[in-house]
Amino acid sequence: MEVLLSDMKTHGSATGAGAETLLDVAALRADTPGCEQVVHFNNAGCGLLAAPVLATMLDHLNLEARLGGYEAAAARAEQVRAFYTETAALINCAPGNIAFAGSATHAYATALSSIPFEAGDVILTTRNDFISNQIAFLSLRKRFGVRLVHAPDLPEGGVDVAAMAALMRAHRPRLVSATHIPTNSGLVQPIAEIGAHCRELGLLYLVDACQSVGQFPIDVAEIGCDLLTATCRKFLRGPRGSGFLYVSDRVLRDGYEPLFIDMHGSRWVSPDSYRPVESAARFEEWEFPYATVLGCAAAVRYARQVGVAAIARRTPALAARLRARLGDLAGVRLLDRGRTLGALVTFEVEGWQAEPFKAAMDAAGVNSALSFREFAQFDFADKDVEWCLRLSPHYYNTEDEVDRVADIVAGLRASP
Ligand SMILES: Cc1ncc(COP(=O)(O)O)c(C=O)c1O
């Protein structure tokens, strides 16, 4: 990685604001074994592992095989702690505000379970919250009788923040929730603007940053959220089966704790009482996939070394180039709407069904993903669409690959 970083060129003062780092894409690709195999435009599904991340994980599995699982974890205690320091530095909080989770969904459910909902409580969200979050809200409605309120969208797409703020004042929701970038389009929601209203009104605010972490800078202080969930496997390029939960000091101080807290998250201080630990470890469980945690630490370190600001310039720009190319094609309908768009490019192709189209992309050596109406009941109904193909490049993809992928889509259009 040192070699790789010294290969990157920095223009202007390295420390000054506005210093522009140009990524050495060739070096980054050389560091990414998958680049030799496929055109990977499914980073919104799972990013390709960088070589140091893979090596870290393999090394730990080898250590576990040689020393024993508990002993290997003890031997790597310092590197495990680095998961918290790296992730905290990535999103601008303290290590004690970070909990490791097996997935973003698990982090989200654990966070929700800490809120003592009562019948009639309102959850205020958007029309573009992630499918599993929406299902969790419906489950809370079924069990506890909470009410769900969805803020309207602007005509150009994305939540109408002024309308959402009016709903906050009218309903005083028990929880406000927003997904930064939904799984089903490139829309980037104005989460900091929403957060400013939550802070003004003292409302609990939960953000799903699953698709944005590793793609855009995430600053929890600027967002003003109480809780934030993310995965490590997508734009952070960490291993599968990993994620994290940010828990603010305010939430920790106010005594929020998950419904099922265990011997890691609390102390059993007398036969009939327990005391939650002070930090966000309260939201973790005792058992950890240590090779995965170490892989996540390596992935977050890697993203920070590459430079999140530089990634945030290059990655959405590759997506914009792809959108521009696809937008020129008759029979292709681009579906991304909103003032700001990230690196998820979604579209439908006239005359094609979902699975055959994806299979044709697979056959052409391009990794992609499908989204269906079920993933986005509000958004896809608004757009009157049943399915779309999602292409999600990352900084290690090239302009050439973008053009090749656009050419492949252009070629397929004519032959459903
Ligand atoms: C916006 C968003 N939130 C949450 C998730 C769920 O993440 P995980 O699969 O790690 O539970 C995803 C996964 O695609 C997502 O796109």
Provide structural commentary.
This is Aminotransferase class V domain-containing protein. It holds the Pfam family Aminotran_5. InterPro entries: Aminotrans_V_dom, PyrdxlP-dep_Trfase, PyrdxlP-dep_Trfase_major, PyrdxlP-dep_Trfase_small. The structure is a single chain. Helix 3 runs antiparallel to helix 12 and helix 8 runs parallel beside helix 9. Strand 8, helix 10 and strand 9 form a beta-alpha-beta unit. The protein is 42% helix and 16% strand. It is globular, with a radius of gyration of 22 Å. The chain has 16 helices and 17 strands. With 416 residues, it is of the alpha/beta class. The strands form five sheets. A seven-stranded mixed beta sheet has the order 4-10-9-8-7-5-6, sandwiched between helices. A four-stranded antiparallel beta sheet has the order 13-14-17-16. The site of pyridoxal-5'-phosphate has 13 residues, from helix 6.
